[in-house]
Structures are given as C-alpha cells and as structure tokens.
Amino acid sequence: MTNTTKLLAPASLGPLTLPNRLLMAPLTRNRAEADGTPTPLMAEYYAQRASAGLIIAEAATPNAVGQTYPNITAVHTPRHVAGWRLVTDAVREAGGRMFLQLQHGGRVGHPATSGLTPVAPSPVPLPETIFTPDGHRPAVVPREMTAEDIRTTVADFARAARNAMDAGFEGVEVHSANGHLLHQFLARNTNRRTDGYGGSIAGRIRFTAEVTEAVAAEIGADRVGLRVSPGNTVNGIAEGETEEIYPALADRLGGLGLAYLHLVFADPDSPVFGKIRAGWPGTLVANPVLREMSGPAIEQASGRLLDAGADLIALGRPFLANPDLVTRLRLGAPLNQVRDRYLMYVGGATGYTDYPTLAGTGAAAQPSSDSIVAFDGPRVA
Question: Among residues of the chain, what percentage have pLDDT more than 70?
Fold first, then answer.
C-alpha cells in the first residue's frame, strides 16, 4: 500500500467517519468582517475544499480581548454564529465536515485592533511590531491576567465551543500553539507567574488543561481536539523544558477521550514526537514540514509521519492553493503553487477562491500595486 493510498483511506475520528485521512489545517486568511463575522465569500472558499476528510476552520476568538489581527473570525456573538452557519451549511451541502479552531491571542493583540489592552500570563510584551488597521505598530505591554480573568477566559472558551456547535460545526480545536495565549502559559519566557499557573511544568500546563477540560465538559470530549506546536518559537516564544511540557500535558489530558491531539510542524525524528506518541492514547494528527509543494513531497513527508505513529495528516498550504487537493493526489496530478504570499491576508477573492481545479480554470492572480506586506512569519501551516 502506497502512502497516498493510506492517506486516501477512510478513518474514524470520534463520532465521525472521514472519507480520507487528509485534514485541512486551520489557515488564518483575514476575510471576515471587521467585527469577526464570517462572510459569504468564506462559505464559498470552504465549500470548494469540502473533499478534505475534515476541515479545521481558521482561528476564531472566544471573546473580544482575544482578537489578534484585523478581519479575523470570532464566535462569541449571535451574529458570529449566524455567519458561521452559512459556512457550515455550504460545506455540509458539498459533502464536507468541519471543526472550528478556538484561539485567544493573548499578548498577540493591540488596542488599535480590539479596542482593549491585551491580556497575558505575565506583563511581557511581544518583542516585535504587530499589524493593526493602522499598519504595523509597536506591541503594547499586556495586562497580567488575574485569577478571575483566568476563570472568565476558561468559561469564554466553553461558551465559544457551544456557539460553534450551534453554528453547525462537528466539533472544535483548542489552539495552544504558535505563541498565542495558551502557548504563552506553557512557555517560560512569557509565563513568569508565581501562583498555581506558573513556575513548575504542572503549573504551566494548567491553563491549557483547564480550558480543554472545560470545552470537553461543554460539548463532549469526542468533539474536541487540541493543537500544540512543541519547540515553535514564533511570536517570541521560548518554552524551556519542551521535552517535559508536552508529555506532561498529554498525560494530564490522555484519559479525557479527546477526538485528537494535533502537532504542528511535526518531526517524526524528534524525541518529543516519540514521547508524545508513546504517551498519547488517542488519535494523533500531524502537520508535516514540506520541502516543496508537490504530490511526491506530501507522500514522502506524510508517509514518514504515518510510519512514526500519526493517524491523520493535516495540510495547510496545499489545501490553500488546491481546492481539489484530494483529487489531485489520487490522480497524481500536478499541484497549484501558492501565489503571491501577500494575497493570503489582504482580503477579497483574489488568491482565495480563484485557484483553479482540474475540472475548470481560474485567472492567475496579479498582485496589485498596493499589495504590501501585511504579515510576516509562518502564518499558515
């Protein structure tokens, strides 16, 4: 059996039966309205990619202070829920299934975007500028979260998960990766607390664990995934004790019966991957690092992860540029390449819903004269 054959085989995930083992990873695309409400254009985008075994929709904030950048999605008001319902209805009509990622930015935010001072485990600012509606601006010092802030935020995540189910999602993914709030609690350089949410490894994993447990209690553990990025330094993160943090987190949550644990930029040769796989009793989703955008590269990287114990493979950029990625892999057809990276985040249909499929054609995207750098760094998997 080839690796592609394995990827295209059906799989079970919690209560779901997936038609293949390829998941569309959550991709921030900044096409929502200013208040975070999903748009009809987003419904078209996701419906185009409904052949994925499961779509994990882009990060949605569980409260107003959790907003990171302009035009990202949210899921904490009735209007947000109604907007997402348009998306899930379109995907379901096209034969697909969706989870929604829940993400709080923590210190990755700005008053110019949210109207609020960001909160974080400790008052340690992002060591770089951040994009706002007014362009790049210096990061602000976040407000250290109080015990009441922590309790309220845990409750906000649980409420957001319920909103996601009301919006038609099959489940949610708790985002504890890529330098956002939950990851900030895990990392030694951003978590300088001396209470029960800092210091020791048990203290640093506590917030992520409590959020995940609360979400599972709200909608059922088999409808909940958790995403982590061991060793990832994006957004100024320096974890410390990476090889101890994640096995400890997996051990605390392993008996909960979660739908999956999702590893970003997974390296099957790394010690932490082996420790997590050995200690995690459930489904493991792995997001590979691809050297190039091609079917053989996907097959090779995915095969190594499957051989190392991954159960499902999450892909970002390949799905971004190839609405019919599953068909292309099945046929061994060439893949579209990601066009001008600035088009990932500038809004509109260009570079979003106009990628061609094998069954049709699409106009090549041409960067506009004002297509400037909006975001830097590894924003999509």
Answer: 94
